């Protein structure tokens, strides 16, 4: 950064009674005049500008000269590379945004209807309370825990509307940093790339627990349990509620029970990231079963929710952070402290997406229609998984078992391809995916499955 | 968390028991936000004559929130556009919105824009822009001290602290004159270490409504440039303060015009009435285009772990209005109407107090600019007004003129009159 003449200036001249006082300073030979005018002075102020006033500016070097170019986001950067590719066969399997069979973005019908309703109603655009839209908060916790949930009825859930999954995770991370300083969050290996960034920026230490087993392309359950058991008491354990990102590999119900056992035994706190409720299996209840299991045991849990995928509201940034506490008193206190963290971050959350969710969930017809649309979306993905599996099995003459494609759940599939193989996918086949071998099935159509299968088989066997 | 063993000796927890020891035992209840809490208290009051002069949200003469006509029209256009979808927008926001926002504050022919020296990111209104700017500076700038005026918006120190900066103050408001303590301001900024960041309210200072004159701005600019301080403008009322978008951007353009660097946080909450949509932008004016490009890339690294990318709706509305000549023109008309109504409230309140012979010099009511008036009333007088007259304002004596109407001015004047007589 530019350095400035370290002038040890004399104290300023005392302002006397004259209407215009001039205070002069010497800075390394530069004489600059300041004019102070008493407020009552009606005569125009004289500013003694110096011919070398431009020299008085900072030097021509930017104070940000040392700022380096940041690398492109590894996930969002994939879309950018895809856009730059002019090849007709190109395929974007990078970001997890749902596309139709025609590979077009999809705005849900219920969302369009809700927006029309909102426009007709002529809602105002006043600030929401810091904790967000009340109707949304009520709806979101009911969706998550079920309408008749005891925790809700007992007032034990602190809910604050957040900026989709990321924003909700960040609020929770800021809360953990402030009220549990030094306490770690355990995250799965691998996990969504942005998790680490969120905890880093929030100043929360993290460590990893084993999760993905490349040998089976499945869950390393023993490793997971061992690593969670070894965590310091009081640690947080970040769990994907369903449709693990990036692997698509979820624990079975029995495995969830064991995970809950360990977390209880070791006095840890579960922290769920629920980004795909309803989108994974097609059923809202089924996809929330892991969270509900923990809550039913009376455990205190954090749950971050997102409506980006299940309601297709990606760009509206709508989600929530829920903290299920052991008492309603604790929930009140927790909520008040979450608000205190949200206020200096963005004051209060955006209203539009929250209104959409509240309108859809609050209207029985729209709510049913939403459930159908979710079944459609998750159904299309399951169909694509099946086709891909069929194609892979047909094209791979070695008899390798590709059935993990069918077992994995949600938008993503961990193909088992390594970095070089993933790069081959892009360079040779114009198929864009993240370097960890993750493909987004939401960006795949039935008609492209065969091409994709060819590419995977080629990359897997011919590139190391 | 210990569980009660059931009959089978299973450690599984009884569903309704709740944990024996909560992880949140040590948490205290946070108080309500001092500004937003005023509305919370107001809402609880059953009195039919209650008046909310707390939050700076514009109200019509009928006391109703206002959605601008151009905003409704823009929303209609957006909803009818079948090519629109809701996929993630870029981390730094809508490109078109960013260009138009920078143009709005810097002016059409700004060389900074022409020379591509401005890095702009769409953020969550003013707060979000300030926070992203603070985090960027704490990561990439060598000076971590920011000077804020006394008084300033209550949320400023918290934003900067949590954003990783430490906060110092400079004198600003002179209660003796109900005006600017210009000498004190310059003295304090002069004493700042080189490179320190300085928060400046672009116009319509919140909460005082006291702005530097153009000449005073020039003096401030000279000092800041001489000391190599880094200005960080908070522009929340462009067009709303005087009714003129250009006039309200004077201070920012003065600084940018000398070729130096600065940060600018813009909000569209008030001037477009988009409060709840959370639309704003952070612009960093740099010395060169290459620096601006690098700065923008680093802004994305701040934003991604905070909320990934900003919300589309409000920014789309703004971009639609700013890019359409008719909508833009109509906006300026609606903006002027809002500003004029507030100025008229100032005069009505002043006249009402004069008519009642309320002791004191109330001329600051008509001299101050923008949405707020720093009445000069103290905490006790404020409490009195709330308790006896059901008037809700922040305890520093700040009232939102936007919340007044011709019908309610007499009630407020009565309350102030009584408070001054009773506790003066």
UniProtKB/TrEMBL annotation, chain A:
Gene3D superfamilies: Aspartate Aminotransferase, domain 1 (3.90.1150.10), Type I PLP-dependent aspartate aminotransferase-like (Major domain) (3.40.640.10). Keywords: Aminotransferase, Pyridoxal phosphate, Transferase. GO terms for biological process: amino acid metabolic process. It comes from the Eukaryota. The keyword Transferase applies. It is an enzyme of class 2 (transferase). Belongs to the class-I pyridoxal-phosphate-dependent aminotransferase family. In eukaryotes there are cytoplasmic, mitochondrial and chloroplastic isozymes. Homodimer. This is Aspartate aminotransferase. It comes from Picea sitchensis.
Automatic annotation (TrEMBL), chain B:
It is an enzyme of class 2 (transferase). GO terms for biological process: amino acid metabolic process. It catalyses: L-aspartate + 2-oxoglutarate = oxaloacetate + L-glutamate. One of its GO terms (molecular function) is pyridoxal phosphate binding. It comes from the Eukaryota. Residues 50-416 form the Aminotransferase class I/classII large domain. Its cofactor is pyridoxal 5'-phosphate. One of its GO terms (cellular component) is mitochondrion. Keywords: Aminotransferase, Pyridoxal phosphate, Transferase. Its EC number is 2.6.1.1. In eukaryotes there are cytoplasmic, mitochondrial and chloroplastic isozymes. This is Aspartate aminotransferase. It comes from Picea sitchensis (Sitka spruce). The lineage of its organism: Eukaryota, Viridiplantae, Streptophyta, Embryophyta, Tracheophyta.
